[in-house]
């Protein structure tokens, strides 16, 4: 059948046919999703597809180096840390100089071990600082911010341990090295040269490592107990009790208790000597490091499995 002329629009334009309307459908325009207050669309992602929710907040891409830097910033900007380190330096250096100026040892005594006697008390301050490094964050609630910014809890604990141990070793090394040199020279000028076989490396470096290990021990107790007073009490008991209760135990038992204690290890590192039995200086230090590792592992398990 012949088709009639197309209907005209008011302006004289022909009305579109059915085929023409089907071919020239209007393109579908994507309407952006409404951005809620505080919502942010990541660069390169269409605004119509907001970022998925549910990942870790802000911490997934943070590198371990940034965590180390963060822990270093925290530990060096806390005033109590600097005061405790000053007490450690004062105990080691002050007692060393005081003893070197007042005692009258024999010519066959080890002058270095006399000068470093202050580390016996300084270890208590080092352990306390290790506890406070983590327990203070639980007290103030800062630990929640730390773990929100970097949710990998074990890596946070490792970073704290590395920063703290490095700082404690450095402070101990400088302080004990200076104390050993000053104390020995003072005793030599007063008494004369000592005939004792002195291992300066063992006394200075070994004792510095010991301070770092005791601090890590405190860190382990702190993250395990999450309470400053309880963790410090437990640490002090572990350091001091073996030497206190050992003499009251049966001889064979008490001897072993004392020989495998932190105080015995420190005495070996400062004064050396293998005539009194027990592990040597370096095996004793390794044993204390194993104790500290056990405390840190137990604390890490609790940190990972329990809410903060």
Automatic annotation (TrEMBL):
Membrane-spanning residues: 82-102, 114-136, 157-183, 203-225, 232-249, 282-303
Keyword match Transmembrane helix: yes
Cite the residue spans of the region called Disordered: 1-50
Task: Output the superkingdom of the source species.
Answer: Bacteria
Keyword list (alphabetical) reads: Membrane, Transmembrane, Transmembrane helix
Residue ranges that the Swiss-Prot or TrEMBL entry lists as coiled coil: none
The biased composition feature labelled Low complexity covers 23-35
- The identity of this protein, by name, is ABC transporter permease
The organism of origin for this protein = Embleya scabrispora
Q: What is the lineage of its organism?
A: Bacteria, Bacillati, Actinomycetota, Actinomycetes, Kitasatosporales
């Amino acid at each position: 059948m012949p088709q009639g002329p197309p209907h005209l629009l008011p302006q004289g334009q022909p009305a579109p046919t059915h085929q023409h309307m089907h071919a020239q459908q209007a393109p579908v325009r994507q309407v952006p999703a409404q951005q809620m207050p505080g919502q942010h669309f990541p660069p390169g992602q269409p605004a119509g597809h907001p970022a998925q929710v549910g990942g870790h907040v802000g911490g997934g891409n943070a590198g371990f180096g940034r965590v180390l830097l963060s822990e270093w910033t925290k530990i060096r900007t806390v005033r109590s840390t600097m005061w405790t380190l000053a007490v450690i330096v004062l105990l080691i250096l002050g007692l060393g100089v005081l003893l070197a100026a007042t005692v009258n040892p024999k010519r066959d005594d080890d002058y270095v071990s006399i000068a470093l006697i202050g580390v016996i008390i300084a270890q208590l301050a080092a352990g306390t600082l290790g506890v406070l490094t983590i327990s203070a964050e639980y007290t103030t609630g800062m630990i929640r911010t730390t773990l929100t910014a970097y949710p990998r809890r074990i890596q946070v604990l490792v970073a704290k341990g590395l920063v703290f141990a490095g700082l404690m070793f450095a402070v101990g090394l400088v302080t004990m090295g200076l104390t050993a040199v000053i104390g020995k020279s003072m005793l030599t000028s007063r008494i004369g040269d000592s005939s004792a076989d002195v291992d300066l490396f063992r006394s200075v470096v070994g004792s510095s490592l010991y301070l770092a290990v005791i601090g890590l021990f405190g860190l382990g107790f702190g993250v395990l107990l999450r309470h400053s007073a309880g963790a410090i009490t437990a640490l002090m008991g572990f350091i001091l009790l073996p030497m206190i209760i050992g003499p009251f135990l049966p001889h064979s038992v008490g001897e072993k208790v004392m020989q495998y204690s932190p105080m015995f290890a420190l005495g070996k590192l400062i004064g050396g000597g293998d005539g009194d039995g027990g592990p040597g200086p370096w095996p004793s230090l390794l044993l204390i490091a194993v104790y500290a590792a056990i405390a840190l592992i137990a604390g890490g398990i609790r940190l990972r499995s329990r809410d903060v």
